[in-house]
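Quick start: what a row looks like.
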Amino acid sequence: MQDVLEGLAANPALPEHLFEPLAMTGDEDVRHVLTYRDDLSERQARILRAYDDVDVHCLIANGKVPWAEVPRHDTPSLLAAAQAGIAPTAVIRELAGHHDPEVRGDLAHYVTDLPPDVLATLTRDPAPNVAAQAAEAPDLAEELARHPHVVVRVSLAHNDRIPPALLAALLTDGGSPAPTRCAACHPRTEGCSDHAPGIRRIRLAAAANPAVPPAGLENFLDAEEAGAPAEIADRTDLPPHFHTHLATHPAAFVRGTLARNPSIGTPLILRLTEDPDPGVRLAVAENASVPLAYLTALAGRRRLPSGPLPRILNASEAELNGLAASRVAQVRPLAAARPDLPTPLVDRFARDPDIGVARRIAPHPGLTGHQLTDMADRHGPPVYGALAHNPGCPATLLRRMARDAGPACKALRPIATHPASPPDVIEALLANPDPGVVRAAAAHPALPMKMMERLLTRAAAS
C-alpha cells in the first residue's frame, strides 16, 4: 500500500476531502510528497503542520504559510520566510546580525533581492564564508575583489555578472592587494607565510568563468586541475590555437569537452576522431559540426546516444533522405530521432522493418493512431514502451499493450502515466508487482475518485 499512497499523494486530481485522510493514513514519505505538491493550499499546509515529520520550513519557503503563522522563535522558519519574500525588512536585518555565521550565510545564499544595506553588511561579515555567499552581488564586486580572504575572492571569480576588467584582474594575479587570509590560517592569529596556493585557486576560478576575457587564458591551457581547461575547451569565442593546444591535454575529460565544441573546425574534429580515448572519440558524435560521414561510420560500430544528435538536427532534407535510405540499420535511427522530420520521412520510418528505427520514430507526434497500431503489430512488446511515449497513442492501443506486455515489461510505466490511458487500465496497473508502475497508476488523474476512496479505506484498515 505504501506505493499506492505515495502515488495518491502526487495525484493532481486528488479530491480535497481525501487530503486529510491521506495525510493521516500515510507515513512520513507520503506526507513528504504532499508537502511538495504545487497546488498545496494554506489549509492543506496547516493540516500537514500538525505532524512532527513534515518539513515546515519547506512549506514556509514555498509560500504556503502566511507571515502571521510563521513561528517567531524559530530561526530556520524566519529564514524560510525571508526566502519566500514574506518576512519584514526588520526581521531580515536581525538575521543579518545573528550570532550564528551559518544563519547569516544561509541568508546570503538563499534569499534574493536583499535590501542594499543588508547585502553590504553581509559582504563585510567577519566570517569569510558569509561574505563569500554574498559575492553574487555584482554591485559590490569592486569591494569584494579587495577582500583579504581567499575564499571570498574565489567565490567572486565564479560570478559571471561582475565587470570583465575585474575578472581579468583576478585571473592575472588573484586581485590587488594580495589576499592575506585563507582557509588554513583563518582560525589562527598569525597568517600563512605564503598564499600562493590560494591565489592559484582564485586564478583558476576566474579561468573557468565563461565571462572572463580570453587574454591570459593561455596560461591555464595546461593546468593539471582539469576544471579550468575543460571550461576553456567549451568556449566558442577563443583563438583556434587555444583549441589545438587543448587537444593534447592529458585529461580525457578536457579533450572530450573540446570534442563537443562546434567551433573547433573540421581538421581538429577529425583529429579527435582518432583520439586514443574511446570516450573522446564518442564525444565527437555530439559535435554539431562533425562530418556526417564520420557520424554514420561511427553509428555502425558504436552505440550512440538515443536522443537527436546536434549534427542530425542541422542536417539538410537531402542529408536526411540519404540517412533514411542507408542500408546500415544503425544509421537510419539517427535521422528517425529528429523531432521535426518531414511527413514523408515520418511515414517511411513508420514502415521501416528495423526495430531500432521503430523505437526512435515511435514517440513522434506526427504518427497517426493507425501507424502506431501497425508498428505494434509488426514489432510486438519490444516497441511498446516507445509507443506509449507517443502523446497521440490511442486508448485502444494502450489497453491492448497493457494487456499483452507482461507484468515486468518496461512499457507499463509510460502506459500508467499516459493521459489517454483508460480508467480500467489504470486500476489494473495498481496490482502490478513493480512499485514504480503502482505509484504512476495511483498518481494518474484519470483514477476514479471511488477507487481513491477504496484505496484509502483499505490503507486505514491495514
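That is the whole record. The chain has a mean pLDDT of 92. Residues 157 and 335 are 42 Å apart (CA to CA).
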